[in-house]
């Protein structure tokens, strides 16, 4: 078993695609203290239920945050809510959704008051993201 590809967003936060129960056990064993689920339940058939994943994560001593975001429709307010989670969560942390893209968008929006759009685009590109439309949104004046 191997974990989904991890994208490094900061020293304390990584993002990835959908996690399984096995992935959560492996992350807990690696010392991850917080999981942030950015995927709505029942987005696609066969997707693990967030409540069962939350129960598992919490049984392993991890913090769990559920901030579901509709794919392709990440709002500034959701980025602000993500920023609040980042301020209070134990670290290190992993955020996940279907592919990890929403997590990257939320992270960038959570940082938009402290960092320039160009700086955020560079950070997302370094993490392996290629989202030209979202990059334009970040750099729009």
Mind sketching the topology for me?
Elements: E1 7-10, E2 13-16, H1 21-29, E3 34-37, H2 50-59, E4 63-66, H3 76-88, E5 93-96, H4 101-110, H5 117-126, H6 132-139
Parallel strand pairs: 2-5, 3-4, 3-5
Antiparallel strand pairs: 1-2
Pfam families: BLH_phosphatase (PF04273)
GO molecular function, one term: hydrolase activity
Protein name: TIGR01244 family phosphatase
Question: Hey, roughly how much beta strand do the residues contain?
Answer: 5-15%
- H/E element order: EEHEHEHEHHH
Assembly form of the protein: single chain
CATH topology: Protein-Tyrosine Phosphatase, Chain A
User: Which CATH class is shown?
Assistant: Alpha Beta
Structural class: alpha/beta
Q: Can you summarize the main beta sheet? A: 5 strands, mixed
Helix content: 40-55%
**Unreliable stretches:** none
Tally the helices: 6
Instruction: Just name the CATH architecture.
Output: Alpha-Beta Complex
Order of strands, widest sheet? 1-2-5-3-4
β-strand number: 5
The radius of gyration computed from the alpha-carbon positions, rounded to a whole number of angstroms, is 14 Å
Q: What gross morphology would you assign?
A: globular
Count structural domains.
1
User: How far is the N terminus from the C terminus?
Assistant: 44 Å
CATH-wise, what's the superfamily? Protein tyrosine phosphatase superfamily
Kindly state the mean pLDDT as a whole number?
96
């Amino acid at each position: 078993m191997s974990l989904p590809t991890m994208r490094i967003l900061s020293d304390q936060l990584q993002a990835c695609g959908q996690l399984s129960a096995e992935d959560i056990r492996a992350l807990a064993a690696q010392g991850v203290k917080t999981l942030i689920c950015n995927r709505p339940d029942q987005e696609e058939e066969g997707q693990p239920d967030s409540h069962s994943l939350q129960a598992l994560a919490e049984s392993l001593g991890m913090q769990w945050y559920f901030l579901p975001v509709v794919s392709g429709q990440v709002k500034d307010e959701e980025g602000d809510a993500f920023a609040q989670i980042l301020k209070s969560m134990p670290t290190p942390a992993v955020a996940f959704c279907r592919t990890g893209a929403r997590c990257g968008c939320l992270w960038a929006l959570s940082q938009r008051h402290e960092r320039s759009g160009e700086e955020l685009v560079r950070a997302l590109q370094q993490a392996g993201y290629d989202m030209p439309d979202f990059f334009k949104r970040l750099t729009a004046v």
